Amino acid sequence: MRIEHESVSITGRRKNNEDAVLAIPEHGLFAVADGMGGYEGGEVASKLALSSLRAYCDLLGEDGLGLSELGNVEGRRVASERLGLAIRIADREVRRRAVGRLRRMGTTIACVAVAGEHALLAHVGDSRVYRLREGEAKALTRDHSLLNELAGTSIGTAQAMRLNSIITQALGPGGDVQPTLSFQEVLPGDQYLVCSDGLSDVLDEAKIAWHMASKEGGAQALVDAAFAAGSRDNISALVIRVGEDAA
Q: 3-state DSSP call for residue 42?
């Protein structure tokens, strides 16, 4: 499969951009991190997490995350262990640097690793991965939020909005993270969106689908739409397109 990607990340209505974007096409790995923590902490945490991810992939060499074997059970086990370990190493690196005025820093992370007809997803926090297939966008990740942990309980709309903004996992603060990993079958024509909550908080799946499927669609169109919709946060969009290899 041929893979193309593009990304846009803007400060938006904030004073500085605490989001960071990573694309390592030679390893099939794409990620977005959304930092938090006051001062410049969020900015440091997101960049630190993604630089740690890159360093881990470089250390693995040509075999990388082992994505070429995602078509079999053992290959999936190896790839998920490697990507999960990469995220836990990034978590420890953020925690190691979280001292002094950076002591409260942390970051979310969402990753898509694509190879051939398969993809491996991983996330911590509320940065998301969506897939566009046949004109329909679908969220493939479920936020690590207090709202989702309380799913099934009776809560009001206002309380639900507040609880949804409280994440229960992030790289940096608290104990060791437990990234959620999942596998997806990839079809020619699929598009994947990895984004920060500055986008997903203001654009629903229908709007995401419309902008990704339009001729002028792509990362810039999604970011512009989120800003126009009133996003008060940094906004980052990383779009991955999968197509048939040229004959």
A: helix
